[in-house]
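Tutorial, part two.
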Amino acid sequence: MHFRRMAMTAIAVAVAGTAFTSSAYATAKFNFSAKTWKLERKFKRQEVDYYSSEKPGTIVISTRKKFLFYILGNNRAIRYGIGVGRWGFRWNGTEKITRKAAWPDWRPPAEMLQREPDLPKIMPGGPDNPLGARALYLGHTLYRIHGTAQPWTIGTAVSSGCIRLTNENIIDLYKRASVGAKVVVE
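Running the prediction step on this input gives:
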């Protein structure tokens, strides 16, 4: 399986006509799954009416509806479809974005390694990494808003508490959101 992904990565790079570097990652779209999927229309990124007292730049996450709203102001927001924590891993509260990372390394927390001992201790950033193309770190928690190598999970409850977006959408949100921005998880 790993060889298949490496071969497909090489093909994707050859098609793009660029060397396989971090900058190539930034513009390439990856989906190496054999699983056929199509993002439901309601989960595609779109500007919507959104009435909120939150300031522009705030992120509001509705885990029940599986949407993330980036507040624009004037009763408008950008809505993104998301994947959320599975039963027993959902959470709510208010945090701030404390760090942003492009193609972040993934270090599964100790609790996750106890549940799934076959996981690697660290996985370098890249197209196969569970954190996807970008990550927004939330306070001093173990949670992040991040991309995913499994875009078919958008609109579902499958994570260990993190909020996942398609890589295309996390790249868009990453450009908009600032370190220090308020994040409300409902």
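Confidence is low (pLDDT under 50) at residues 1-32. In part three we will examine how such features are distributed along the chain.
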